[in-house]
Amino acid sequence: MPFQHPEEIGYGYVIERYVTRKDSGRARYFDLKSGRILRPGWPHTERFTRHLIDDAATITDAELEALLGYEWRSRLTAGWLIGVGRRATFRKRIGDLLLASEFCFSGGAYCFALARFGTHADAEILTAYLDRYLPRTDLRYDQPAALGALLRLDAHLGTHHADRFTQPNGLWDGWVQALAHLQDSPEYIPAERHRWTDLQCGFAHGWTQP
């Protein structure tokens, strides 16, 4: 499907309303991508989060589709809104986008949403993604976010999908070792990826109904 600016399908307002709105002085997509929302003591947490939750509850499916059909900023924002609102009807759509990996950055939001949905179907999508992209040691896409989400789902579901990726000298180790700048970074330890996904989901869970 070709990328479309939302204006082309009658939804030109969604970028300003959902993606570039400034509840913190910076655009929403920037705050979501940077992880500032998870920092203790961030002064804009309550205002930012209340507006994010309100939007996640009221955005229409058509508006979400308009965002998902455009570029990475809008897709990233849509992924977060889908995850916060647990809009599981979008599971296949964001799963397809994750596996296609057409843009950088937005895939982490899809992984967050799948972690929020919390089912075996979501674990299967993440497993398929890692099967496809961990062997690609020349590429840095959303492998860390996908592993963190899968580890969280394994812990929640009592499954072991991630075990074959994280075993010593397995696909995860091979991917990290192939990228020299990652080798000594604690950020790429599987437990840290799991912790980061827990932080994201804990943030959403703490402000929304279970």
Strand and helix map with partners:
Layout: H1 14-19, H2 28-34, H3 45-58, H4 61-68, H5 72-84, H6 91-100, H7 106-117, H8 120-133, H9 143-157, H10 163-166, H11 171-178, H12 190-207
Give your account of this protein's structure.
- InterPro entries: DUF6000.
- The protein is mainly α and 210 residues long.
- It has one domain.
- Helix content is 61%, strand content 0%.
- It is built from twelve helices and no strands.
- The chain has helices spanning 14-19, 28-34, 45-58, 61-68, 72-84, 91-100, 106-117, 120-133, 143-157, 163-166, 171-178, 190-207.
- Helix 7 runs antiparallel to helix 8.
- The longest helix has 18 residues, at 190-207.
- It is globular and about 50 Å long.
- The mean pLDDT is 92.
On the 0-100 scale, what is the average pLDDT? 92
Fraction of residues in H or I helices: 55-70%
Helix and strand content put the structural class at: mainly alpha
**Beta-strand content:** under 5%
Number of strands: 0
The number of helices is: 12
Low-confidence stretches: none
User: Strand count, sense and closure of the main sheet?
Assistant: none
What is the end-to-end distance?
A: 35 Å
- Shape, per Cα inertia axes: globular
Number of domains: 1
Radius of gyration: 17 Å
Secondary-structure element order, N to C: HHHHHHHHHHHH
Keyword list:
DUF6000; mainly alpha; about 60% helix; 12 helices; about 210 residues
Quick summary:
The protein has 12 helices and no strands. By secondary structure, it is mainly alpha-helical.
